[in-house]
Design a protein that fits this description.
By secondary structure, the protein is mainly α. It has a domain of 105 residues. Helices cover 60% and strands 3% of the residues. A two-stranded antiparallel ribbon has the order 1-2. Strands 3-4 form a two-stranded antiparallel sheet. Strand 1 and strand 2 form a beta hairpin.
Length: 562
């Protein structure tokens, strides 16, 4: 595999004195590449030296970006939260990064484990999951985890809903103002299929797609194609319809993964990395699993931190919900005999200390994790709640990471190819039941709490108020709007003041897109008027979604003279 080289214990490439100038190259089955839009060229075999430089450069570009810094003031669950112990998007992303790194390390070191099966060893050999490449896969996964939420708007997932809902109600109405004496029915009659698809794209805001737009179109980070592919969680363009359940790639396309505005870039990325249409990069599977593992316990921890749930109530809810989830998976067949021999919350301390997760019957796995957490808390006279949650987190994360890693290896052909049409954790296994239980309990007790829903309603009002305030920019004809963007003189007094509140980089991105469609005719079946309006909708979404929770509140207060 290697040409007179071998990896050091730190993963770096070491050569003999005689071959010190040699460049180590390996095959590229894991789709790791240093290629970018601007910079490195494609290569039949990847250079370890180039990968190290390219991915460390990506790391620096990402960690020093304004988009990552803004995550510290964006909602995870509790909007405008003043308790710094409660998670923001940034602290959540750091936790996802740690779990992603753990999964990647598990996968890359699987062949060296004492209990590794011959099948797993062969999978590692076949797909070159080797020490020479492990550090680079880890790096891509880590940075994908840091980036995975950068496209989310203020006020979390309810903010996504607020933006989408406003554009569904208003986008076509404001477009009609540009087409005199035409009813909406007549307008729909004059729009062709491609133009209607473009409106559909503009009317559905999706944080995952906005992340791709942010790193490429808005910030111009010029990341490697591999790094961007790591956050391409879904493979459907915004102009495509959602496939019905059971259709090819229905899971990989269940949400919009990128907008029409980035379609050409994603196609270029897929060609560069030899990723087939509708397929994923293998790093995206790991990032997704890390996110699922992290937030399913984190949201509950935050609920306890805010006294929304007590430890006793949490434990009761987890144990009850786990059995309900197992039943829904039809995983509790033939378990009647197991239950009488299962570990329960009343297990004595000696048995608890020596019991292993893998030996616990599946009906009792949640009770076992809770029992261990209770035992840990009983030994801590000062930080009982913290001790309980820490042990519960560790007890849950370790088996879920092991399960995600094994699922990656068991399905490695489809995962590396990018056609595996499932999440790594979603297979109706006991581990799937564990993660789903935490999500369900968080949904029932944290997300539905009066305080959360009140803040979400406030966030909805703020986002709607801001979009209402900026909506006059959608009513102008293109010539008038272009004049606002390019000159300081304007007859539109209100609109000229509104445009100044939008970031220069967003306006520059809009102008660049318009220049491109004027000169290149990117979409021959779409009129310039429709496509220009599409990018103007994107401009407003870029502006609003890039705000932090606090900045959105301050802007709303300014407009409302509060």
């Amino acid at each position: 595999m290697f040409d007179k080289t071998h990896p050091t214990k730190h993963g770096a490439t070491q050569t003999s004195v005689k071959t010190s100038k040699a460049v180590q190259k390996v095959e590229n089955k894991l789709k790791l590449s240093s290629q970018r839009v601007i910079g490195s060229k494609s290569d039949a075999k990847i250079s370890i030296n180039k990968l190290q430089f390219a991915f460390e450069s990506d790391r620096g570009r990402i960690l020093n970006s304004a988009a990552v810094r803004r995550l510290q003031q964006k909602t995870q669950v509790f909007p405008l939260e003043k308790n710094s112990a409660v998670r923001s998007r940034l602290t959540h992303s750091l936790e996802v990064m740690q779990v992603g790194r753990f999964i990647a390390q598990n996968i890359c070191s699987a062949s060296e484990a004492e209990d590794c099966s011959e099948k797993t060893k062969q999978a590692c050999v076949d797909y070159l999951i080797s020490p020479a490449l492990s550090r680079y896969l880890e790096t891509v996964v880590e940075m994908s985890c840091i980036l995975h939420d950068v496209g989310n708007p203020p006020f979390g997932h309810f903010g996504e809903f607020a933006i989408s809902n406003w554009f569904k109600k208003n986008a076509r109405k404001f477009y009609l103002n540009q087409v005199s004496d035409v009813s909406e029915q007549a307008l729909r009659a004059r729009l062709n299929e491609q133009e209607l698809a473009l409106f559909n794209d503009a009317e559905h805001f999706e944080g995952n797609a906005q992340a791709i737009r942010l790193v490429h179109s808005l910030m111009g980070l010029n990341l490697t194609y591999t790094q961007v592919a790591g956050i391409l969680k879904y493979t459907r363009c915004g102009t495509e319809s959602k496939p019905a359940k059971g259709q090819p790639f229905d899971y990989l396309k269940k949400k919009v993964g990128y907008y029409y505005s980035e379609q050409a870039y994603v196609q270029q990325l897929n060609v560069a990395l030899d990723i087939q249409p509708s397929h994923r990069h293998p790093a995206a599977y790991i990032m997704e699993a890390a996110d699922d593992i992290s937030y399913c316990i984190a949201d509950i921890e935050d609920a306890v931190e805010k006294n929304i749930m007590s430890i006793a109530a949490l434990q009761s809810a987890l144990e009850t919900e786990y059995l309900n989830v197992l039943a829904s998976f039809n995983s509790d067949q033939s378990m009647g005999d197991e239950a009488s021999h299962s570990v329960t919350t009343h297990i004595d301390q000696h048995e608890l200390a020596i019991a292993k997760y893998e030996d616990i019957p599946k009906r009792q796995k949640m009770a076992y994790l809770c029992a261990r957490a209770s035992s840990k808390a009983a030994k801590d006279s000062i930080r009982k709640d913290n001790a309980y949650l820490l042990e519960l987190r560790v007890g849950m994360v370790i088996p879920l990471v092991a399960h995600a890693s094994q699922r990656f290896l068991d399905n490695i052909k489809e995962v590396v190819d990018g056609s595996f049409n499932h999440a790594l954790l979603e297979d109706q296994s006991p581990e799937h039941a564990l993660s789903q239980t935490f999500k369900n309990v968080a949904l029932k007790y944290a997300f539905s709490h009066k305080e959360v829903e009140t803040r979400e309603l406030q966030g909805y009002a703020i986002i709607n108020g801001l979009l209402d305030a900026f909506s006059p920019l959608l009513s102008l004809e293109h010539a008038s709007f272009n004049a606002l963007c390019t000159t300081s003189d304007s007859d539109f007094q209100l609109e000229s003041r509104l445009i100044k509140r939008i970031g220069n980089k967003h306006i520059a991105t809009y102008l660049s897109a318009i220049k491109s469609i004027q000169h290149n005719a990117k979409q021959p079946h779409v009129s310039f008027q429709v496509e220009e309006y599409y990018y103007r909708c994107r401009l407003l979404q870029d502006h609003i979604s890039g705000m932090t929770d606090q900045f959105a509140l301050d802007e709303y207060a300014m407009f409302k003279v509060i």
